[in-house]
Structures are given as structure tokens and as C-alpha cells.
Amino acid sequence: MHSPLTRRGFLAAGSGLAAATVLPGLSACSALTGADSDPDTLVVHSQLGTTAPGSPTYLAALDRFRKENPGLKVKNLINGDDLAQVYETSRLARKEPDVVMVNLYDKTLAWTDVGATVDVKGYLDDWGLRQRVLPRALAEWTDAKGRVRAFPYFATNWPIAYNRALLDRAGVDAIPTTGDELIAAARKLRVKKIAPVTVGGNDWTGQKLLAQIIQTFLTEDAARHAYSTGDFGSRGAREGIEYFVTLRDAGVFADKAQGLISDSMVTQFNTEAAAIESAMSSALAKVPPKVARHTEVGGWPLADGAAHDKPTILRTYTLIGFWISPNGTKKIDTVEKFLRFMYRPDTVARFIKESGRDMALRSDTVSTDFPLVAAAQRLGSTVSQALLPDVFVPPAAAQPLITATSTSFTRGTSAAKVRAALETAYRSA
């Protein structure tokens, strides 16, 4: 299945791409004029710099880099979820920034293939940085043609967080590991007016949890096929959808989950209005200390006959990477200095210690001030890993899958309708 963002399509899109709304301090004009011809000015486009997890550490790193390289300047352009669209707009005008810090998902999947960014494999080797990257991370950032899309940086563990105190209050004696135990726990929690599993059923958090549950009866290869092609008709996929529907209609998820978003989910869990959430590292790092003290992390409960032998979590090494643009190749010496600095063990360690970030790079540093992040790192063989579908979903299907997710979390929607909604999301792809 081909990406809709072909080279011709990318160029033709220029007339239809409106500049996205950008954060304060960065006008749409400045995004389009991000490229600086001064070889001593590096232009970096990032989601870090405001409230995104790791922003204070990142800004401090930029300050250290400037002090260590007094002849160089760094211009930091900031966007949120609209970063990919803003970057594409600037690239169409040939005024793109030199380096882009963003994850591998949706629009960005096509960038290297259409020349919006360059293959960094040669740079990774020439600069001697390959050995700093975890092998699994390098594999995830490498495409089918052997090109390395970007320099891997942030990773994430994505376990299930259980508020032990709320479970105890409801009379739930142990962390549920089976679907039946989860349903029983949900009923007891509701008696105490506590939401069971909170989830952003109307955004990417719900999409990921739905994919994780559907994979209960799927091997990794079967899951890869389903999410690459949009074919959810296999026996395992149908059983996974039916398992999800059973849990949903038994009241496992928070009320009106189909309208919740990630912020709603985090708020409900952190204020102890809900007992359970599917939480990636950045969410675990935000859990208040008083809540974290009685929170445990584990996997998603399994059903009888599951393809996995232990409760599942998600992991990915594609959360943020450093992409090099065509303009960046014109300042490659400056880009090299910047990436060598960001890959230094001391720089990496500060993201782990100060921000609770999981990294795609080798490090012995532990998130001591972020106990739940560290606990997720220690789960190891006590859980099974489901496939994060991001790099397999065609870009054109990514947003329609969010709509399908909201439909799926709507109580009363049959398993057949959930499957139809998922498969419909792929029709434009």
C-alpha cells in the first residue's frame, strides 16, 4: 500500500497547505522563513520549548551548546501537534529549518521517501554515533530500503498504571491480569464512584489502547499485516475486537470515553478520579508524587486463548528523532556539532534525570526522581510487548483511525461495526 504523499503529491500540496496555527513567539511567516543562510546559525524545528515534557532540559541544553560554541547561533522554532504540516509548508517554499525534532508517525513516514528529509545513515556512521544507538531503535528508524530516516533520540515505555490505593478502597485485592478480573474490578470501582480505566477515546491514546487490545489474539506478524493493510478480518483480529467490545460494554472504560482526549485521561488519573490508565513515559512522569507512591505499573489483562503469555504493554523507540533537511546538508558541519553534543552521555543523562524521558540511546542513568518511569523500565520479561502500529499505518489512514477509535469506544457499537469503522479508515489509503 503506497503512501499518498508521493513526490508529485508533496509538491502539488503546496497550494492547498495552509500555514498551521503556531505557538506564541513564532509567526507563520517565521516558520516559512526558518532557513537561515548564515552557516553559523543552526535552525532547529521542535515540539520542545514550551510545556512538552523535556522542554526545560532541552532549552538548557541549547544554552550549554551555545556557550561551548560561542561562534554558533541556534534559532529554535516551536510547534505542537501541527509541526509536521508547518514543516511541509516551509519545505515546499524551500525555506525549511536545518534540523527537525519530531516522531515517526503519520505525515513524517513519507518524508525521506519524497526528499523532504535526507537519509542519515552515512552521517551516523561517519560521525561514529551508531554505537550510541540501541539496536532496536536503529531498526525502527530504518525503512524498507535500508535508509535511516533520522537520528533516534526519545523512546517510551507504555505500560498500564494502576492506582493501588483506589483498588484497595474498592475491595480489589490484586492487580487484574485477566479480562474477567478486570471486569470484576471495574464493577467494584463503579460502586465506589471511581472510574475504572480512563482513556482518550477521541485521540491517539485511545487508538493505541484499542490496537493493543485487538492484538490480544494476534502474533506480531499478524498484527503487522492488519495495521499495514487495514484487513481486520482474520480470526485473531475479530477475536480481539470482540474482546474489546466485551470489556467496553461491561463498563471497563470511563463514562463517555469516546469523547475524552489525552489531557482528560491524565487529569482523571492524576486527580484520582480514575484508577487505571494506559500511560506512556511522559504521562508517568507527570503523576504527582502523592499518587505515584501508591501506583503500580504492569500490563493489559489478557483473555483466555490469547496469543501472548503475559499481560501486554507497548514500547517504541520512535518518539523523537533528529531529522536533517536538504537545507541542513548545506550546514552539515554545524549540524554535526549539534548532534554530537545532543548524543553526549552527559546530555542524554540530563533528559533521563531531569525530565524522566526514556531514550533510544545507550545510558546507565536511571530516572530516580520519576519512580514510575523507572518501574516501567524494570518490567522486562514480566510483560509481553504488543506491536505499536504507528510505522505500519499508511499516513492517509492515521487520522481516520482516530475517528474509528471514537466510534469503537461508543458503548453499544457492535464488533462488526467496530471492524467496519477500522477498515473504512484505510479506504483513502
Task: Give a verbal description of the structure.
Residues 1-32 have low confidence and may be disordered. The chain contains 20 helices and 11 strands. The chain has helices at residues 7-12, 28-32, 55-68, 83-92, 111-114, 121-126, 135-141, 164-169, 179-191, 204-214, 220-229, 235-249, 262-270, 281-284, 289-292, 332-343, 345-355, 371-377, 395-408, 415-424; strands spanning 41-46, 73-78, 99-102, 151-158, 160-163, 195-198, 274-278, 295-298, 312-324, 358-359, 384-386. It is globular. α3 runs antiparallel to α17. α3 (55-68) links the parallel β1 and β2 (73-78). By secondary structure, the chain is α/β, with parallel strands linked by helices. It folds into 2 domains: 7-154 and 316-366, 3-Layer(aba) Sandwich (D-Maltodextrin-Binding Protein, domain 2), CATH 3.40.190; 160-278 and 394-424, D-Maltodextrin-Binding Protein, domain 2 (3-Layer(aba) Sandwich). Strands 1, 2, 3, 4, 9, 10 and 11 form a 7-stranded mixed sheet that branches. A 4-stranded mixed sheet has the order 6-7-5-8. The longest helix has 15 residues, at 235-249.
CATH superfamily of the largest domain: Periplasmic binding protein-like II
- The first-level CATH class of the largest domain is given as Alpha Beta
Strand residues, percent: 5-15%
CATH level-3 fold name of the largest domain: D-Maltodextrin-Binding Protein, domain 2
The major β-sheet equals: 7 strands, mixed
